[in-house]
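Attaching the record inline, Q. Sequence:
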Amino acid sequence: MALGVAELSLVSPLGLSPSEHVFFHRAEVSPHAGGAFTTRDGEALPVHHCPWIAPSRPWSSRIRLLAKQALARAAPASRGTPILLVAPREALEGEADVARFLTLAGHAVVSRRSGSAAYVPAFKEAHELLRREPEVVVLAVDSQIRRQDIERWFEQRYSAFTRNPLPPSEGAAAVRLVASAGQGAPLAGKVHAYAAAESEARDDNDLPTDGAALTRVLAALRLRPAVPLVVGPLDVDPLRIRDFHLASVRHHARLERAEMPSFEGQIGLFGSAAGLMSAVFALAWLRHGLPLPGPAGAGQAGGRVALAWARSADGTVGAALVGDERS
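Structure, as predicted:
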């Protein structure tokens, strides 16, 4: 059963809605960088942060505001709608505790996960919940705008041993999911398939990736002969770059002509929110009919589809095949 997407939400330093994100990206609009973060010599750092949250705002408060904004735009029908939350571990406890914040606001948070690829098991749980619930919201949020993250990035910024890492950033995304069959109202899109696997190569070890886990994930999605759009961390860091190169070569016939926008690469690191943010960005691209390469981009009787993938720090890789309403 495909998951129907009733509503999309996406917030970041680039925009406040999915529509703004895809059109600003196409127009090469720069994400917001207020110049609030500087070196000791006064040099402004290219740290992109949401302009509607003060740079001095505590990290715990930033996380909660991002979650609140994304959830509001997803427009759940009632406060009893189950929410499947994806956030960094530090945001699921202590002062931040996003789940507690949402619960105190009257929402029903039924599960908590961490990691960029955690949106995939959240989709699986949503599939089960929709057997008895009219709708489910998957919400992902993270912020790298805190002193230790910025200092760590600054220390590695001009390393002689690796590529210049992406700067810290922040964002949130949400999808309100319904059972796609029998829906009267138009859908914002569909989630056709999703899969996840474990890789031994992680962010905290030196094991080189062999691309096998991501290759298996893409195979499990049963990709169409030509997938015209791919969104994911294909240019974020050496581990993810090589992982995608190896997996995409093994599926080259289906992916070789795809448009591959550098979404996270344009704005900065999104942490645990990255996977769902990529999926929402892909859905918005399809929803607005933005150009895509080849015959698959010109429109098909079965509609258009896109691949959104992610890799968590713990080695989990996940991907989803999403489509527009006609697909």
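Confidence is low (pLDDT under 50) at residues 296-301. The first helix runs from residue 18 to 26.

More tomorrow.
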